[in-house]
Design goal:
The complex is a heterotrimer of chains A (about 425), B (about 900) and C (about 140).
Chain A (H helix, E strand, L loop, with lengths): L2 H14 L6 H27 L14 H25 L9 H21 L26 H34 L3 H9 L7 H34 L11 H28 L7 H32 L2 H12 L3 H13 L7 H4 L2 H28 L14 H24 L5 H8 L1
Helix pairs in contact in A: 2-14, 3-4, 3-7, 3-8, 3-13, 4-5, 4-14, 5-6, 5-7, 7-8, 8-9, 8-13, 9-10, 10-11, 11-13
Chain B lengths: L2 H13 L14 H5 L12 E6 L8 E7 L2 E7 L12 H5 L1 H4 L9 E3 L5 E3 L2 H17 L3 E6 L4 H14 L2 E2 L9 H11 L4 E4 L6 E5 L10 H14 L3 E5 L4 H5 L2 E4 L5 H11 L8 H6 L5 H8 L3 H13 L3 E5 L9 H14 L7 E7 L7 H12 L3 E7 L10 H4 L5 E6 L11 E4 L8 E6 L2 E5 L12 H8 L6 H9 L4 H6 L1 E3 L13 H6 L11 E5 L14 H4 L13 E3 L1 H7 L5 E5 L2 E7 L7 E5 L20 E2 L4 E7 L43 E6 L8 H9 L7 H5 L8 E5 L7 E5 L8 H5 L5 E3 L5 E3 L9 H5 L6 E2 L26 E2 L5 H13 L13 H5 L5 E5 L6 H6 L4 E2 L11 E4 L5
Parallel strand pairs in B: 6-7, 6-14, 9-10, 9-12, 10-11, 14-15, 15-16, 20-24, 21-23, 27-36
Antiparallel strand pairs in B: 1-2, 2-3, 4-5, 4-16, 8-13, 17-18, 18-19, 20-25, 21-24, 22-23, 22-26, 27-34, 28-29, 30-31, 32-33, 35-36
Chain C lengths: L1 E6 L2 H13 L7 E4 L5 H6 L7 H26 L12 H27 L5 H6 L7 E6 L5
Antiparallel strand pairs in C: 1-3, 2-3
Helix pairs in contact in C: 3-4
The chains are: A mainly alpha (about 425), B alpha/beta (about 900), C mainly alpha (about 140).
């Protein structure tokens, strides 16, 4: 097949995905939207009643909402890894995933960014977390990890969105050429009049590289900052220096799993088998395995150092994690995150897409549980036994969590129909 | 006093009282704010009115803080000998009663159909008179049955009964000390409860008498023993179960239920007598050897020896028996032997003072109550006028007999079980709305004065009685006539001591005979059930106050009951966890496993006793609160039981005194420069040797700072709002230690660093301040607090009207979504600094600022002050050898120092 | 007159481009459109290096400065003591400055890109010019049509 025909076929196949949606699509969209509506309803009820309708209490002041926050930010990181970090490493296989991954990043950060608002006692004053000039000299406390979060997540969202958009420009030009009607006009405007001239590509290439270069340390810093929400406290189980690399690795781990979860069915449904191959998935699976090993290492380090330290608070706390009231969640987490991914050492399993899909679901569950276990067990058993207390989520919190998944999938489904799910220009570049 | 002076004083008294110009909730009207108030009172400035607390029989003095015509806070009256400026948990919470939404507001008449219909006072009075005549005509006896009354009300009741031809039935109190009174009657011919001068004793044995929980005058006793506790003195407490008194005593002796007579009999034979005992008495005294005493009571012989030695070595030893140790089948023997021991040790009359006795003159025993019930059932009672019958519902079969009266008239503030079935309810004003007086101990007379006009259409009991009798004087005039002879101090300080006749006390001739008639000690088989007076509701009368359920029972930390405490061994063998139900005779109760409770003993507060079949001893009429051979059967059901403690074992965590926890081998140096405080650095010292765990400080904090009551569902979710908690810890088999914990105002506070919006920061005086209107509610501060001292407003809490009006105007009410915590009563600090500025002083003097918790503590365990001032008491305490800080190894630099002799 | 050369194949396209330049056609008269970035084109046409780097540098420097200036400035504006930490807590400000470096760097780079490439290209949007998947060289011969 000549290059021209190949390009033509490529464009056609990818943009075919954006044609009229099937019944399955509408059903999926409806379910997601319903879940999202449930989440919004629960949030509205929470604003009206007060945070008391959740299950949080003293000592466990953070529960499912912060778990969701860290979970979604973690999901987002993998997208940036695939787009930016793999770009800097010149990994060719990335271009079959990177558009979806970037979309996933942007949507996940949007979802994550709602949770700091949701968990606020007075969320209508959320803007006080941002340092805006005012007459009363009220500024924010930059020593607080939560403010670092504000800056980190805002920066991450902005840069991810910019990076996403920049990557889209050439593809929007392609879509502009192939669509008619209102979509053609939308693409015409959004593509900014891109022509693909040498001058444009020259600047574009530098911009893309700089954005990738910025995004790489950003990925590391953002999840480090999120982990410092916990590590900067005094609580045993939280106050440990391993958190930054532990969380970054965990984020990439969970995000990669989510990429697999999204792309395996997407590839099948949209018929993109030729462009997203099993080889590509095997490469992603290797990343999953590698990050799983780092996460397992972190689990071991945490546990062993707690025991080795001789600090009774640390020892008591980790004993609680292993044999206390939340032990089932802890062991399930270890199984999903540490044990199950080890099967990826087997090449046959690495190349089996069904297996990868199921495994990725387990990893998603395991990584959600990891955040829950870290947050809740550490708060439930700290220094003074009088204050110990357990936490169980209630309906509103579960509703909002479901709502966040609903929002994520709803927006991702909309993305698949509105924008090219593959980076066409990049695929062209790497196929020649 | 000269008539002119009297009138002048009268003028000050009535004019200076807010009642003359305030109209309760009429303060909404603008006019009252615009018109100049009398006596130079400035609106917005508090005025203080002395009165007497009526929440329990102890009758502690009260100072009411009145703001703009409404009482907002209660404190003790330093001029009043009972209480001496302190107030217990019930006293602090009693202010809620005035504003309670369920108070009866107007007279209610029960229609033949059973419905209660509001009627007017005149109609109510007329009805009573009609019924009185009708009942007399039908040959029934009309009677008055009330709770314990003293001083003028006591006299008025007598006069009213005479006027109306009512039989004055023996007064009813469920804790009437019948066994003690009976014993003193047989031994000394004085059927009363003497005053126990514990402050004079240098060695003390209390047998069951819970002197810092509820016995007689707990606030006074706590005040008296506190300095002795700090210094260390031999105080032994023998009890069958577990109480705060037992936890606080220097040595607690767990005795087998019902076996106290062996302990006392052995002491009588062992400790040398200082007062000669007649030969007949010595002969009739039971003979008990050391081994038998040890065997019967279960107390190790070494402890018995130590006890005997302590009593023998002391110059002024004292033995006090009471409470649950005299409230069982052998209680009369215990009371008799204790009385004899008091005589033998020479405690009478110096330490056991019959002339200043507790006024139980007209209080009958439960045998008298049973007789009334019998007469009611025999339909011999016509009109029954009832008042203050607290705890009647716990006595088997008593409340059920009440409807048999031809016409029952209830003088009450709430429709409690005894009054719920009355034909006519006459609502009684609260003491804060009435004139009155109280003489809980002979010679100690306190003045009760109103701080505002009644909130609702209620009248004081005295006024009701006078009106029933058809008199036109008011109770106020009646009182003023009686108070004529009192000096000006009476009005100013609200208290006066009247001289009492001191009569010589000697052993009665029948003493030997009484001893001989003691007979065999009945056995109380395990498991025994001990029903003790409740620290939080006394005999159940304070149950209506929600705050007293919100504040936990200090030993078990259970809040909303009822429940029964079980010992750990029994729980293990029966497979009982907290909340599992146990059927004890006629009723089932959820259990709480209580470490420290002796095996074989179940402990319940009296308000868990309904349906458990409490009876009276036929011989003494005393309550049989301690019964053996209880059938305890697991029902298999579980009732979620709200309790606040997540664990009582805090060994090696740097929390308990003398237990530093993980220590570092080198001094940890801070990376940062220490802050240079300039004028003040506020700090607090909490003396764990003095603290008895009574939780008065907790109630005071709630009242001072407008802390909301969260309720039982929230408690089950692990949420409540207390800024100060009394945290019990149990180490091994020892008695519990109570540590009051509030925000520690750390110099290196972990909470301050993590607040994103500067809603909490460290001010220049060392306080960790919380800015409510800046808080967005991320809750990171409480997550990071190692003491978990902070509380979050999960909802917009408020009480139903008119209880929502009970607010201290100096303290903001927090909206939902905002964090709050102890502020070291910053409003009081600010007030003192303003006053210092007004007075032209630059600095506040030591002792001028007293936070609410410190102010009310009966034991004086809490000290507050400026630690920069080396002459201040808090500085000295913090630098005494007894000081330590909680979780010191974390390096948060708390400003609260805890004191204990156990500190190394 | 505009002479157009269309190619499906990158190698052929590059060959032609080299030919044209070697044959003396001034790069200024050549407009090249590619479906993806072909960096050889820049060598062949002797294109000046992109000024984008400058925007990135300025953006990053501005972010770094702003990060520290803002944090330090606001801390000194109302000095509130939290947790015994110093008022100017530089270690914590480093994080904020780092984020702002990246934020400003990225955003200003993007704005620089828009500026340098003259985006949005309103005439192109309005006229609806398309760019296809082929490699196109347009030579402006300068001759009249």
């Amino acid at each position: 097949m000549s290059l021209g025909t190949y390009f033509d076929q490529l464009e056609h196949d990818v943009l075919a995905a954006m044609r009229k949606p099937s019944k399955l699509y509408w059903a999926a969209l409806a379910v997601s939207a319903a879940a999202f509506a449930l989440g919004l309803g629960c949030w509205g009820w929470q604003i009206y009643e007060g945070l008391g309708m959740a299950g949080i209490r003293s000592p466990v002041g953070w529960g499912v909402y912060i778990t969701d926050f860290v979970f979604w930010v973690g999901i987002a990181h993998s997208g940036t890894l695939i787009s930016a970090v793999l770009f800097l490493f010149r990994a060719k296989f990335r271009c079959s995933f990177n558009r979806s991954a970037e979309a996933m990043t942007v949507i996940a950060v949007m979802t994550a960014g709602l949770f700091p608002l949701i968990h606020l006692g007075r969320c209508w004053f959320f803007y006080w977390l941002m340092p805006y000039p005012n007459q009363r000299h009220l500024w924010v406390n930059f020593r607080s990890p939560l403010i670092w979060d504000v800056f980190a997540v805002s920066t991450y969202f902005t840069i991810s969105a910019v990076f996403f958009f920049v990557g889209l420009i050439p593809d929007l030009a392609i879509a502009r050429r192939r669509f008619t009607g209102w979509r053609h006009w939308v693409f015409r405007i959004l593509s900014l009049g891109w022509q693909g001239t040498a001058e444009q590509w020259k600047h574009y290439a530098w911009l893309y590289m700089f954005l990738a270069a910025f995004a790489t340390p950003l990925v590391i810093s953002v999840h480090s900052v999120v982990s410092w929400d916990f590590a900067m406290s005094v609580i045993p189980g939280w106050h440990t220096t391993i958190f930054a690399p532990y969380f970054v690795a965990g984020a990439i781990f969970s995000g990669t799993a989510m990429v697999i979860t999204l792309v395996v069915p997407m590839r099948r449904i949209l018929g993109l088998d030729t462009y997203i191959t099993v080889d590509h998935f095997e490469a992603i699976a290797k990343i999953l395995l590698f990050t799983s090993l780092i996460v397992s290492y972190s689990y071991i380090v945490e546990f062993v150092l707690a025991w080795y330290s001789g600090n009774p608070f640390e020892i008591a706390h980790f004993s609680f994690r292993a044999v206390g009231d939340y032990r089932y969640l802890y062991w399930l987490m270890l199984f999903c995150n540490g044990l199950l991914p080890l099967t990826l050492f087997v090449k046959r399993l690495r190349r089996n897409l069904k297996y990868l899909f199921v495994l990725s679901l387990f990893v998603n569950v395991g990584m959600w549980l990891e955040r829950f276990v870290i947050i809740v067990t550490s708060l439930a058993r700290d220094f003074d036994p009088y204050n110990w207390g357990n936490y169980a989520p209630r309906f509103g919190e579960i509703g909002i969590t479901i709502g966040s998944f609903g929002m994520f999938f709803m927006l991702f489904l909309i993305f698949t129909k509105m924008l090219p799910v593959l980076a066409i220009a990049e695929v062209k570049e790497h196929s020649s | 006093m000269e008539r002119r002076d009297f009138l002048k004083v009268l003028g000050i008294a009535t004019g200076g009282v807010a009642a003359s110009w305030s109209s309760g909730f009429g303060q909404d009207k603008l006019v009252s704010r615009v018109l100049p108030p009398p006596e130079g009172h400035i609106p917005g400035e508090p005025i203080h009115v002395h009165s007497v607390c009526t929440e329990c029989p102890a009758g502690c003095g009260l100072t009411v803080t009145v703001r703009d015509g409404l009482p907002v806070k209660l404190e003790g009256n330093p001029h009043h000998a009972v209480g001496g400026g302190a107030l217990c948990v019930r006293g602090q919470a009693s202010l809620v009663r005035v504003y309670h939404p369920e108070r009866v507001r107007r007279p209610l008449y029960r229609e033949p159909g059973g419905e209660l219909k509001p009627i007017g006072w005149d109609e109510a009075m007329a009805r009573v008179r009609t019924e009185l005549a009708a009942a007399a005509g039908a040959g029934r006896t009309n009677a008055f049955w009330g709770g314990r009354s003293t001083a003028s009300l006591h006299r008025l009741i007598g006069e009213t009964c005479a006027t109306l031809g009512l039989e004055r039935l023996p007064e009813f109190e469920i804790f009437h000390h019948g066994a003690l009174r009976g014993a003193y009657g047989r031994l000394f011919g004085r059927r009363t409860v003497p005053a126990y001068r514990i402050d004079r004793a240098d060695a003390l044995l209390t047998v069951g008498a819970d002197i810092v929980d509820t016995f007689l005058s707990p606030v006074e006793f706590a005040r008296q023993i506190a300095p002795k506790l700090e210094a260390g003195w031999p105080w032994f407490h023998a009890e069958p179960a577990l109480s705060l008194t037992g936890a606080r005593a220097a040595r607690r002796l767990a005795v087998a239920p019902g076996s106290e007579r062996f302990l006392l009999a052995w002491l009588l034979r062992t400790v040398p007598a200082r007062q000669p005992l007649p030969a007949g008495v010595t002969a009739a005294m039971p003979s008990v050897t050391r081994e038998e005493a040890a065997r019967q009571t279960g107390v190790p012989a070494a402890d018995l020896d130590a006890l005997a030695r302590a009593l023998a070595d002391a110059r002024q030893p004292l033995v006090v028996a009471g409470g649950v140790s005299v409230a069982h089948a052998d209680g009369h023997a215990v009371a008799l032997l204790a009385g004899l021991l008091q005589w033998s040790l020479g405690a009478i009359p110096a330490l056991v003072d019959f002339s200043a006795d507790h006024t139980f003159d007209a209080v009958g025993t439960l045998a008298d109550a049973r007789q009334v019930a019998e007469r009611l059932k025999a339909k011999r009672i016509g009109v029954l006028v009832m008042s203050r019958l607290h705890g009647l519902e716990f006595l088997d079969g008593a409340v059920e007999a009440l409807p048999e009266a031809a016409f029952s008239v209830g003088l009450t503030d709430f429709l409690s079980p005894a009054f719920a079935g009355c034909r006519l309810i006459l609502p009684v004003s609260h003491a804060l709305e009435s004139w009155g007086d109280a003489e809980p101990q002979r010679g100690r007379l306190g003045l009760i004065r109103p701080v505002f006009r009644p909130l609702h259409g209620t009248r004081s009991e005295g006024d009701i009685l006078l009106q029933l009798a058809g008199k036109t004087t008011s109770f106020k005039d009646y009182l003023f006539a009686a108070w004529r002879p009192y000096p000006a101090a009476w009005w100013k300080q609200g208290y006066v001591e009247r001289p009492v006749r001191a009569e010589a006390v000697k052993l009665a001739d029948g003493a030997a005979g009484a001893l001989a008639a003691l007979g065999q000690a009945p056995e109380l088989a395990a498991p025994a059930l001990v029903v003790a007076p409740s620290l939080r509701t006394f005999d159940g009368r304070s149950r209506v106050i929600p705050l007293l359920h919100e504040i936990p029972d200090p030993l078990s930390t259970v809040t909303y009951g009822p429940w029964v405490n079980v010992p750990p061994g029994l729980a293990r063998s029966m497979g009982l966890a907290d909340g599992d139900e146990l059927r004890l005779g006629g009723a089932a109760r959820p259990v709480r496993v209580l470490p420290g409770l002796p095996e074989g003993v179940l402990l319940a507060a009296v308000d868990a006793a309904a349906g458990l079949g409490l009876k009276a001893d036929p011989a003494t009429g005393e309550l049989l609160a301690c019964r053996g051979g209880i059938s305890a059967v697991k029902t298999g059901r579980r009732t979620p039981l709200p309790f606040l403690s997540g664990g009582m074992d805090a060994t090696h965590r740097g929390i308990l005194p003398g237990d530093e926890g993980p220590h570092h081998h080198h001094e940890k140096h801070s990376l940062y420069e220490p802050y240079e405080y300039v004028d003040y650095r506020w700090a607090m010292a909490v003396d764990l040797d003095r603290c008895v765990g009574c939780s008065a400080c907790v109630a005071a904090c709630y009242m001072e700072n407008n802390i909301p009551v969260a309720g039982p569902e929230e408690h089950l979710r692990g949420r409540e709002m207390s800024w100060l908690r009394v945290q019990p810890y149990v180490r091994g088999g020892e008695a519990p230690v109570f540590i009051p914990v509030m925000c520690q105002h750390c110099d290196a506070a972990p909470c301050e660093t993590v607040c994103p919006v500067y809603a909490t920061y460290h001010n220049e005086e060392g306080l960790n301040v919380q800015v409510y209107n800046r808080c967005v509610g991320t809750r990171y501060c409480n997550n990071n607090c190692p003491f978990k001292a902070r509380r979050f407003n999960w909802f917009e809490y408020d009480a139903p009207a008119p209880l929502d009006r009970l607010k201290n105007p100096d303290v903001s009410v927090r909206p939902k979504g905002v964090m709050e915590k102890c502020t070291f009563c910053i409003q009081r600090i600010t007030h003192a600094k303003d006053k210092a500025k007004d007075d032209g002083r630059r600095k506040v003097r030591d002792g001028e600022i007293v936070p609410a918790c410190a102010q009310t503590c009966p034991a004086g365990a809490i000290t507050f002050g400026n630690i920069l001032d080396e002459k201040s008491r808090v500085y000295q305490l913090a630098h005494s050898g007894r000081a330590y800080r909680l979780l010191e190894m974390l390096g948060t630099e708390p400003a609260v120092y805890y004191l204990s002799k156990k500190v190394k | 007159m505009i002479r157009e050369y269309k190619f499906d194949d990158k190698a052929a396209f590059l060959h032609q481009l080299e030919e044209l330049v070697r044959s003396g056609v001034h790069p200024r008269r050549l407009t090249v459109t590619t479906p993806f970035h072909v960096h050889e084109v820049e060598h062949i046409l002797h294109l000046r290096p992109s000024w984008l780097k400058l925007f990135t540098l300025i953006g990053a420097a501005a972010g770094l400065t702003a990060g520290f200036a803002f944090t330090v400035g606001t801390a000194l504006d109302w000095p509130l003591r939290t947790g015994g930490k110093p008022i100017v807590a530089l270690p914590t400000y480093i994080i904020v400055a780092f984020e702002l470096t990246i934020l400003f760097g990225g955003v200003i780079s993007f704005l620089g890109f828009l500026f340098l490439s003259r985006f949005p290209d309103i005439p192109a949007i309005v006229s609806g010019t398309e760019c296809g998947p082929e490699f196109i060289i347009r030579e402006d011969t300068g001759e009249a049509v």
